[in-house]
Structure formats: structure tokens, C-alpha cells
Amino acid sequence: MATIPQVVPMVSYEDCAAAADWLVGAFGFEEVERFGEDEVTHVTLRLDRGGVVFLGKPGDTYVNPKRLREQSEAAARMYDVPWVVDGVWIEVDDLDAHLERARAAGARVLSGPEENPRGRLYRAEDLEGHRWMFEQAASSDG
After folding, report:
1. Of 10, 15, 41, 67, which has the fewest beta carbons less than 10 angstroms from its beta carbon?
2. Model confidence over 54-66: pLDDT tens digits?
3. Domain 10-72+81-137 belongs in CATH node 3.40.50.360
């Protein structure tokens, strides 16, 4: 495998294999490695400019954010905003194209696209309810 960055987010999934396949299709990741014989327990995904994220299955007692919100009123209230409540931020080159790809794959778009001092961004949830923020840097030509 290529060099791993010093800091890598780790996101837990009930179904790592399905999550990896979905993230590749929806958000443009490339799968680098997959571990597990009968059940996938780890997947490493990479983006074109070197970003890496680890997906893992921590065990059968893990409940993903989407199901947790269904089971807990407190968790549902915590996620009753469009903000990224524990998630991953990613810079992209073409926000509009990325957003359309995510929508076509069934991502739940939480907000955006919206302007901010750094550029433009949108927020989305994946198939298990994890939140992701995608941002395109403001043009420097003025």
C-alpha cells in the first residue's frame, strides 16, 4: 500500500463491504485494501490527492448513526440539524459535479451548496447515517 498520512479518520460501519462499495460510487473513493474472510472487517479508501479513510466493523454490538437515531430520542435530537456531528471533511475540485454524483448514488444531502469565506460546501449523509462535508476552495483569481 502507498504511504499512509499521519492522521487518518476511522469510521465504523455495520456492513463495511457495502459501505466501501457505496462510498466508492457516491463520493469517488478508490478502494486500496480489504480485510476479512467471511465478513469484511476493514477497508482502506483513498482519494486522488492522497486523502485516506479507514472503515471498520467494531463488532456485533455496534449500531450505526442512522439506526441509533431510530432507537434513541436523544440521538435523534442531536442529529436534528444539518451540521456534521462527528464526520469527515473533504476538499473537492468540482463541488457541483461531486454533489450530483452523491445525489445520484442516494446520498442524503443535508445542506448546500452554500458559500462561505473559504469557498463553497455541502453536507451529506451516507447509507448508514455518517456525515460528510465536501468543500471547494474559493477561486484565488478574485
Report:
1. 10
2. 999 998 899 999 9
3. no
| Extents of the domains making up the chain | 10-72+81-137
User: pLDDT, tens digit, for every residue of 66-112?
Assistant: 999 999 999 999 999 999 988 999 999 999 999 999 999 999 999 98
| Residue 128, CA distances (Å) to 4, 37, 68 in order | 25, 22, 10
What pLDDT is stored for residue 1 in this prediction? 54
pTM for the model stands at 0.88
C-alpha cell of residue 93: 475540485
Collapsing DSSP states into helix, strand and coil, what is residue 13? coil
Cell readout for 132 is 460528510
Helix, strand, coil shares of the chain, percent, nearest 5, are: 25, 35, 40
**What does the pLDDT look like over 118-137, one tens digit per residue?**
999 999 999 999 999 999 99
How far apart, in Å, are the Cα atoms of 23 and each of 47, 139, 140?
A: 11, 27, 30
Phi-psi region of 27 (alpha: psi -120 to 50; beta: other; left: phi over 0): alpha
